[in-house]
């Protein structure tokens, strides 16, 4: 393990490798502080389940517009640099809200102000996620392409390790620390991340505002459309989660980007503003032209519908588990650890046994599995588990352990299909768009869940209609199955 890390460090630089691990660890460790946020909304602000879910849905909206951050850093360099300045800005946006919430009792206990600061914090986290993703892609492409899979693997391992640590320590911290101390304690990580940004060197692009990949692909997209048969045939690049799109970009960077040469020639003596405008215009046009292809639009529409048609009642269940079942924060943190472990097992299981299956079949069985697990919530709410001699804790642990693993069977096809559908040259930005669609669908699903809870008058201390709400959720889980025709019939996760 240490030898592998030393190889990566010598290939990309120890400071860059440290920054990658730190950012992904922080992303996973966010469960530590967001557990405290959930209790802040419930116990201190006394919000109802629907109001609490509304606040968190608004706060997480910045994750739904990730392509904007990619286009911004691609097209508008700051002092000739496209990544480190934006990463520094993103880290500041991630750091300051936690410091403010830690020191200001008024802002921490006021609904609107708290929601704004949480939204700003997510803006910084989402931007940092996009920028570090772009930095990884560039490092692999220009330095050591043979380390692409290794660099992506260490990223995911760092995030999983951060998630496990955050879930374990989050419950313990809530039992022994005040919430303001938890906010301040978590701010150490973005502060360390801010310091690490200064250790990474980035060369100036000297006025080249237009990304080469976007430009080269722009000429490709203008000369013809995406060949749906090629994209969905059995011969596909090897998929390893997010690394797929990066590997594809490596194969296409050898081509001479004629579009960028023409653009730079015409703007050689022009102003930076003109270059930025042309760069933004080309990136936007290329992205729009790629996304409007039916081969891309239809599958992404399914994944969006799979979220928005199913009301998310997770916040309501959190209130039920903590208020009625009296489950401790430390126990819920342990349940989340099992969820992280289940997620990793689900990923390994998919890669080992399911990637040769047709995606339509996988997604159909996944929706059925999610429906069955939702029925487990109905068992918990009806107290049928107690009649069967099964404790609440065992029921919650079992559900948490299975739900994340089964949901991964839907997320892995999403990653695979997204990678397969990305045309050469705009993998990064288009993949960010795909992830944003998925995140936006989750956000809308949370809004739908909050609305359902409000209509059924489910509130703190009043869970009489929760069984009915979960029943509606179960029925809605089958709606996406009716739209599986949007997924290409022969699409699988098999790799060449």
Could you please describe the fold and organization of this structure?
- Mean pLDDT is 78; it is low at 7-12, 144-149 and 207-270.
- The protein has 23 helices and no strands.
- Helix 2 (14-44) packs antiparallel against helix 7, helix 2 (14-44) packs antiparallel against helix 9 (179-186) and helix 11 packs across helix 15.
- With 496 residues, the chain is mostly helical.
Secondary-structure element order, as H and E? HHHHHHHHHHHHHHHHHHHHHHH
Number of strands: 0
Work out the radius of gyration. 23 Å
Given helix and strand content, the structural type is mainly alpha
Strand count, sense and barrel status of the largest sheet are: none
SS strand fraction: under 5%
* Morphology call: globular
Protein traits:
single chain; 496 residues; mainly alpha; 75% helix
What are the SSEs and their pairings?
Elements: H1 2-12, H2 14-44, H3 49-59, H4 66-75, H5 84-103, H6 105-108, H7 111-142, H8 148-176, H9 179-186, H10 188-197, H11 212-223, H12 228-231, H13 243-252, H14 258-266, H15 272-291, H16 294-308, H17 314-324, H18 329-354, H19 359-382, H20 384-387, H21 392-421, H22 427-455, H23 466-477
Helix pairs in contact: 1-2, 2-7, 2-8, 2-9, 2-10, 3-7, 3-17, 3-22, 4-7, 4-15, 4-22, 5-7, 5-9, 5-10, 8-18, 11-15, 16-21, 16-22, 18-21, 19-21, 19-23
Summed up:
This protein has 496 residues and is mainly alpha-helical. The chain contains 23 helices and no strands.
